[in-house]
Amino acid sequence: MAVLPDVDRATVWQRLMERGLVPAGVDKAEFRAAVDAIDDVYDSQAATWNTALPQPYRGAATAAQKYELFALIGLQRAKVKP
C-alpha cells in the first residue's frame, strides 16, 4: 500500500487532535508533520514488517489484514481501545 492521500492524513490528524493527543508545546503544523512522518514509515517499512511475519500467515493474509494486525498491536501497547 502507498502512503495515505492527503485527505486521509488530514482525517487522522483531526481525529487525534479531537482525542486530545497533541502534546503541550506542539502546534498543529508540527503535529501534522508527525502524522505524515509515521505514514511515511508505514510505507518505507512495509517490506520489513512483511518479512518479519511467519509463514503461512505472511502468504495468506491480505495487506489490509497485515496493517490491521500491526495497528491493533500498537493500540494494545499504548493501552488504547480500538
Structure characterization notes:
With 82 residues, this protein is mainly α. The chain has one domain (6-77). The chain is built from 4 helices and no strands. The chain has helices at 6-18, 28-52, 57-60, 63-77. The relative contact order is 0.10.
Low-pLDDT stretches = none
Order of helices and strands: HHHH
Please report the distance between the alpha carbons of the first and last residues. Answer: 21 Å
- What is the overall pLDDT average? 94
Helical amount: 55-70%
> How does the helix and strand content classify structurally?
mainly alpha
For the biggest sheet, the summary is:
none
Q: Number of folding domains?
A: 1
**From the alpha-carbon coordinates, what is the Rg to the nearest angstrom?**
14 Å
Gross morphology: elongated
- β-strand amount: under 5%
The number of helical elements comes to: 4
Number of strands: 0
List the helices and strands and how they pair.
Elements: H1 6-18, H2 28-52, H3 57-60, H4 63-77
Helix pairs in contact: 1-2
Note the main attributes of this structure:
single chain; 82 residues; mainly alpha; 4 helices; elongated
Give the structure's gist in a few sentences.
The protein is mainly α. It is 70% helix and 0% strand.
